[in-house]
Amino acid sequence: MSIEVQLGISFRVDGPESAEELAQSAGKVMEALLALEECNSELSDAGVAMDADQMIVEVELKASGASEPESIERALAAVRTAIHAAGHGTPDWQTSSRYATPDISVEGATGTFRRLQFTASVE
What we know:
alpha+beta; 4 strands; 34% strand
């Protein structure tokens, strides 16, 4: 049996200084999420939106697994991986998950994604 979870996370993004730079960052995260979907059948329906005035990026993703916690962990790991692939850091990220990836070095990051809000709903 597979449990599907719809994950939504809002991030305050530090680093990009203009709406155009934030849009580029959000686009890179979306591209990375789509690439992850292509190679992982447990991930689907990725979406990224932004509010340039507030420097906020919202990410949505569906993930499935054997349990609700496993599905949430898988989705969180995919989102963090996409942020890293886009060249950003996630220094405040909890890393207790078995799917967790280490944060990229602060020196190599072009910005920082800090979580503001997290929602998960079981489909």
